[in-house]
Specification:
- The protein has one domain.
- Helices cover 80% and strands 0% of the residues.
- It has 3 helices and no strands.
- The N and C termini lie far apart (150 Å).
Length: 150
Amino acid sequence: MPLRGSLRILDRAAEVSLVELTLAVFFPLGTATGAVATGLTLRIRRMYLTALEDRAARLEIERDQRIRLTAAVERSRVAREMRDIVGLNLSVMVGRADGAAALAAHRNERSAEAEHPGRHRPPGHGRTTPRPGRAARGAEERAANSAQGP
């Protein structure tokens, strides 16, 4: 049934007020929701970037610490190797000097004191490390045999 007169105006007014109601309620609500969503997104992004910057700083510190630790380990390894090499060479030099002194004493050379100035060592001071190899043992035996005499 078609509406007539004032009812038609009321029907038209109800349609207009429904559109106005929709615009008056839902548009601000949608705008507020969009603003809140945008604000939350920006806040989360800022927090994420801050966390990334903190992580990058921690990783840089860890990298520097790892580099320093690696350098210290390498220095320690080199120091151990140098100590071993110097100790071995010193042991060889002392052995050769003892052998030369024994040989000079066996030959009754006057230069025995000149070749071995460290003859007056305190008791207990001597070789504390064994000489490696068969050649070194042979040199010790020859020195001992030559010291006993013919």
